[in-house]
Amino acid sequence: MSLGQQLHPHLPFLRRYARALTGSQAHGDAYVRAALEAIVAAPEEFPTDVDPRLGLYKTFHAIWSSSHLEDVPVSPGGSREAIAQARLARLTPLPRQALLLTALEGFTVDDVSYLIDMETTEVDALVEEALGEIEAQTRAKVLIIEDEPIIAMDIETIVRDLGHDVTAIAVTREDAVREAMADRPGLVLADIQLADDSSGIDAVKDILSEFSVPVIFITAFPERLLTGERPEPTFLITKPFQRSTVKAAISQALFFDEATAPA
Q1: Apex CA 46: angle with CA 56 and CA 48, to 5°?
Q2: Residue 235: which of 205, 214, 212 has the closest Cα?
Q3: Taken in order 43, 46, 48, 50, is the CA torsion positive or negative?
Q4: Kind of pairing between the strands at 215-219 and 235-238
Q5: Could you tell me which residues carry 4-aspartylphosphate (predicted)?
Q6: Edge-to-edge strand order for the sheet containing 187-190?
């Protein structure tokens, strides 16, 4: 099998990575094209002691690291992709590389160590730095709508552990709407069944009629939302919940929220 045949299946994924790294399809494709031109010009210099995919990304990084610009262009718009690009663009180059190579491309830490010529401990530190920068970008005020005190306290702890502020804990629909209007949150965590038999669904509807905010429902009655008769929530967690599940949902909801996207 020729070198071109070996590399061909990996090109769509390299283009995806290049786009995420540079923030632009045009810029990303330009770097991919330059890497391929370098391989064609000097095939004998292509790494043969590693998997072809690793060799391809290694060549790409040699081109990118020698000429990339710090100012990453970001496509306009409020789409999920544009918001993600805006966040990634705010990361400094090395942490951005380490995060994308591990989280997006699925390379091991050892692979990334080879690709960017750093020790594995340094790669781990870069990934942590990138995650920390993203967490700082997505800090938000959170309104909790939950009538069970112990569950509410547990959710509050999770929220604060992630570095967010809790504006209030509301136990009824009326409380929830009042608190949301008094201190507009950047995220709402809501139960369905509330203290006075009012509905968390109705509370969320009331809030969303006033302003847009991402919502995560945490409920023992998911079937009340998964009816197929109305737009279903993006984030729905069933009680009893795992703390890790709530943390992941919060991070995901805020990562793609246009309101907290970097300017």
Answers
A1: 95
A2: 214
A3: negative
A4: parallel
A5: 191
A6: 165-170, 141-145, 187-190, 215-219, 235-238
Q: Which percentage of the chain shows pLDDT scores above 70?
A: 90
* 216, 188 Cβ separation under 8 angstroms: yes
For residue 199, what are the β-bridge partners? 193
Q: How far apart are the first and last CA of the chain?
A: 48
Token pair 């409380």: residue? 175
More confident residue, 6 or 96: 6
Q: What are the CA-CA distances from residue 154 to residues 44, 58, 160, 219, 246 (Å)? A: 59, 45, 10, 14, 11
Please give the average per-residue pLDDT across 142-163, as a whole number: 94
Mean pLDDT for the stretch of residues 203-213: 93
Identify residue 229 by its one-letter amino acid code: E
Q: pLDDT tens-digit profile of 25-50? A: 888 899 999 999 999 999 999 999 99
Half-sphere exposure of 249 (CA within 13 A, CB side): 24
